[in-house]
UniProtKB/TrEMBL annotation:
This is Transducin/WD40 repeat-like superfamily protein. Coiled coil: none annotated. Residues 65-89 are annotated as: Disordered. It comes from the Eukaryota. Gene3D superfamilies: YVTN repeat-like/Quinoprotein amine dehydrogenase. The lineage of its organism: Eukaryota, Viridiplantae, Streptophyta, Embryophyta, Tracheophyta.
Length: 511
């Protein structure tokens, strides 16, 4: 699932402005921009993807102007996503990866963006998506490039207009198309515009074959659009009329609308939708709807502790997870009202969630550490060698495999460093056991740059060293079909890590 938002939004559920969203912040801020580093008491509920503010594009241009062309990093924009030593060392040798091609989203000769100067500047990669043999990389500046793994060349830029700033992308498996979500300088970056383009047309550089989506919808702030893989639905909110609309991903047809100005937030799951209303002093009004037709399945009030802010409320299938400040975690079965409480000393408010719907498990991130819980509130696994490089976990820097058995993250290479080092490692861990079973580390002597072509021992055209390729990683993606890991960095470069000398099955088994 991914969510597109415009600005910081106070979606708190009590009078104390307690945020249940990472977009909490003063709306009166003269330059409101999304802060991807929420406080520890503001959990992100993954697999939702939250995107930078539209005004970040304007801020980027201003930073370029001040820095004389360099898009200097805003501190707020920093991102995250072995039984014994002998076993761990042997595993590292076995899965040593080769950085294959190096792709660059920057082109000093590009002349298609005369109106937006910051699109011409180097900018860090914020998202990577791979579809078969095509890699898509989105830079923070709003530039989106497509690269071919067949030719190892850049195919095209997906910005079809000189003033288009692409904020995010989504691969729709139902029709094998790529959806881009953009804002435009001609509109003062005020409205989200969605467009779908078949992957085959992108391969042929026929971007004009794409079609706009939701043209009749008003997606101005604080409106949003959300794409969900788990239920094949698209949720749109228009603040103009206060209406939520649910569309089918297969044909983009409207399924139903929800018009209720008292709704504070909406949570989606594979089969249900949770409507969260404005809280009273003693309880929180809730409704559960069928995700397919919007039919109300249950309405009820959840009792709250007075004068205690709500840290988070989340729906996980038939379970409702509620946590208030300095209170126990409550896990409520919405059908039979069975309640489980987990001590506040055992389960502390995380900075991020990852819901594993197939495994019926909950993965939490807190202070750079990862843990796995079941729906009885029991700790299933803690990770022994999986220290995240940044405490601000997000889905740009972590990847959960489709069968939910592995987590791949941007981690620290050395645990002894007091400060977060610029050079990290890519760690692969088993979700059920917490064991680190593979690692791409700059200290691995078996890690080396691959040749120009398979079987070609000549010098590679890759300009980065292995250490540089693992420095300041800002996004990663695991291509399960090709058994390759893609990483993006602050320089706008994308690196491919592959294992060319063993079969795909062997690599998958090793990973």
């Amino acid at each position: 699932m991914m969510i597109i938002w415009f600005h910081q939004i106070d979606r708190g559920y009590d009078d104390s402005s307690s945020p249940l969203s990472p977009f909490y912040g003063p709306l009166g801020n003269p330059n409101p921009s999304f802060d991807p580093c929420p406080r520890s008491d503001q959990p992100l509920a993954f697999p939702s993807r939250f995107w930078p503010s539209v005004l970040e594009a304007v801020a980027a241009e201003e930073r370029c102007a001040r820095a004389g062309g360099e898009d200097s990093e805003d501190p707020r924009d920093r991102q995250v996503r072995p039984d014994g030593p002998s076993h761990r060392h042997a595993c590292a040798r076995e899965v040593s990866e080769y950085p294959a091609p190096e792709f660059d989203t920057y082109d000093c000769d590009i002349h298609m963006f005369p109106d937006l100067q910051y699109l011409k500047k180097r900018s860090k990669i914020i998202e990577i998506v791979s579809v078969k043999d095509v890699i898509f990389a989105v830079a923070q500046s709003g530039l989106c490039a497509a690269f071919s793994r067949t030719t190892n060349k850049r195919m095209c830029f997906l910005n079809i207009s000189p003033d288009e700033v692409i904020r995010s992308i989504f691969y729709n498996k139902n029709d094998e198309s790529l959806i881009t979500v953009s804002v435009y300088a001609s509109d003062n970056f005020r409205s989200l515009k969605c467009r779908t383009t078949p992957i085959e047309c992108i391969r042929r550089n026929q971007l004009d074959a794409g079609c706009p989506l939701f043209e009749t919808e008003s997606l101005k702030w604080p409106g949003f659009v959300e794409f969900s893989d788990m239920n094949c639905k698209i949720l749109i909110f228009s603040d103009q009329d206060g209406t939520y609309k649910v569309f089918d991903q297969k044909n983009y047809s409207l399924l139903y609308s929800i018009c209720d100005k008292d709704i504070q937030d909406i949570k989606t799951s594979p089969s249900m939708m949770l409507l969260v209303y404005h809280r009273t002093a003693s309880h929180l009004p809730l409704k559960i709807l069928s995700i397919e037709d919007g039919k109300v399945l249950k309405s009820f009030n959840h009792l709250l502790h007075r004068n205690k802010k709500v840290d988070f409320i989340e729906q996980f299938n038939e379970k409702l997870l509620v946590k208030q400040e300095n209170e126990n975690l409550q896990i409520l079965d919405v059908w039979n009202s069975d309640l489980i409480e987990v001590s506040k000393t055992e389960f502390m408010t995380p900075s991020a969630f990852v819901f594993l719907h197939e495994k019926h498990l909950l993965l939490t991130c807190r202070y750079r550490t990862v843990a796995v819980w079941n729906l009885r509130g029991e700790l299933v696994a803690s990770f022994e060698d999986h220290l995240l490089r940044h405490p601000d976990c997000n889905t740009y820097n972590i990847y959960i495999t489709s069968d939910e058995d592995l987590i791949i993250s941007n981690c620290t290479a050395c645990h002894d460093d007091v400060e977060v080092p610029s050079v990290g490692s890519i760690n692969v861990s088993d979700i059920l056991t917490g064991k680190c079973i593979a690692k791409i580390c700059p200290l691995d002597p078996h890690l080396r740059i691959g040749p120009r072509k398979p079987g070609d021992a000549s010098r590679s055209t890759i300009r980065s060293t292995i250490k540089e390729a693992l420095e300041n990683v800002t996004a990663l993606f695991y291509e399960e079909d090709r058994n390759e890991i893609y990483t993006g960095n602050e320089q706008g470069l994308v690196h491919v890590w592959s294992k060319p000398h063993i079969s795909g099955d062997s690599l998958r088994a090793c990973l």
